[in-house]
Design brief:
Layout: E1 9-15, H1 22-36, E2 42-47, E3 60-62, H2 69-76, E4 81-85, H3 91-100, E5 103-107, E6 118-122, E7 138-142, E8 167-171, H4 180-191, E9 196-201, H5 208-214, E10 219-223, H6 227-236, E11 239-243, H7 247-254, E12 258-262, H8 268-277, E13 280-285, H9 291-301, H10 305-318, H11 323-337
Parallel strand pairs: 1-2, 1-4, 2-3, 4-5, 5-6, 6-7, 8-9, 8-11, 9-10, 11-12, 12-13
Length: about 350
């Protein structure tokens, strides 16, 4: 037991097909940071079978906690800290949780609701500029210093920046609900057959056979990599073409220049912030007619080594990998003062 007296931490989140796995990734990082402090949390996921591997070796349950409220509130009884990372939970759910624990914690990306008293965390690069209303009953942890990354990204070796682009990483989350992977891969094969393509395939993908069919000899298909596998692929890749979610922060930590495509409304703050910071080339919204042309343009802009060196430094400057530890330290401090 931690010397603060905190014994029980419960994390609620969601993930799976049509939702993605970004919530689970960042909740995993908090789970690991609590473990480092001698506390083993419980993580409860509103999800499906595609997320099971992400939760292996963790104390977890998978069920629809939004619908089965009697069950979830019974499970939350006597929790010292309750963390919610959700785009689906309603204000009534948050208010009930805030009454059940001394330290309610809410992960947010878009100022989604008017949260009840507790700790509000937004590790987005532009979170501090979003206009959160200061309140006496809320502690705000805002900005990229509070980006929670999985343990494998806490300590990362300095990345080698090659003279030219040789390897391209393609990653669009755990489900790629917009089928962007096959579109980008086809573009790379047609326009850049000389490049090695490191293509990440998530468990929730719907068009795996199509991706396998169009792959050439210089395409490496990487199926459902764990965090260590993602880090390894990033270190081996000169640039990345990706969605605008949680992976951008892992790429920034490693220092991989990225071309980003927004595939969900809640990614717009991310891509705007990272574009303003000079870390990404923003190719646009996934439905834009010219999005693949913009991806191609981005590749051209990243060809120069000095440009990639500059961008790599920007990413690592903004994201140092310590966000999960900072969050847990702040939460524990709050808990010990209650």
């Amino acid at each position: 037991m931690d010397r603060s007296g905190i014994k029980r931490v419960v994390i609620l989140t969601e993930g799976g097909k049509n939702i993605g796995t970004g919530h689970i990734s960042r909740c995993t990082s908090l789970y690991q940071a609590f473990e480092e402090r001698g506390i083993t949390p419980e993580i409860i996921v509103n999800g499906d079978e595609t997320v099971e591997d992400l939760l292996s070796n963790k104390k977890h349950w998978i069920f629809n906690w939004l619908e089965d409220r009697r069950k979830i509130f019974c499970m939350l009884d006597r929790a010292d800290i309750i963390i919610i990372d959700s785009y689906l939970a309603d204000i009534g759910f948050y208010e009930k949780v805030s009454e059940m624990t001394d330290v309610p914690v809410y992960l947010d990306d878009t100022m989604r609701i008017n949260y009840p008293g507790g700790v509000v965390i937004n590790g987005g690069i532009c979170a501090g500029k979003m206009g959160y209303k200061r309140r006496e009953d809320i502690i705000y942890l805002l900005g990229a210093g509070y980006t929670p990354l999985r343990k494998e990204f806490w300590d990362v070796p300095e990345k080698e920046i090659r003279e030219g682009i040789e390897n391209v990483m393609v990653t669009f989350g755990g489900d790629d609900m917009r089928d962007m992977t096959s579109k980008v891969l086809r573009l790379l094969i047609e326009n850049h057959p000389e490049l090695t393509k490191n293509v990440v395939i998530g468990k929730g993908f719907q068009d795996i056979r199509e991706i396998e069919r169009i792959s050439d000899k210089k395409t490496n298909l990487i199926y459902s990599p764990d965090a260590e596998g993602m880090k390894k692929t990033m270190l081996e890749s000169d640039i990345a073409i990706c969605a605008g979610g949680q992976t951008l922060y892992e790429l920034a930590r490693v220092g991989v220049p990225a071309i980003a495509v927004a595939v969900a409304d809640n990614q717009m703050n991310n891509v705007k912030g990272w574009e303003d910071a000079g870390f990404i080339e923003y190719a646009g919204w996934w439905e834009d007619e010219v999005v693949l042309e913009e991806v191609e343009s981005g590749i051209g802009l990243l060809r120069e080594k000095k440009e990639r060196v500059k961008i790599s430094i920007i990413g690592r400057t903004f994201v140092d990998g310590m966000g999960a530890r900072r969050i847990v330290n702040a939460i524990m401090k709050t808990g010990s003062s209650c």
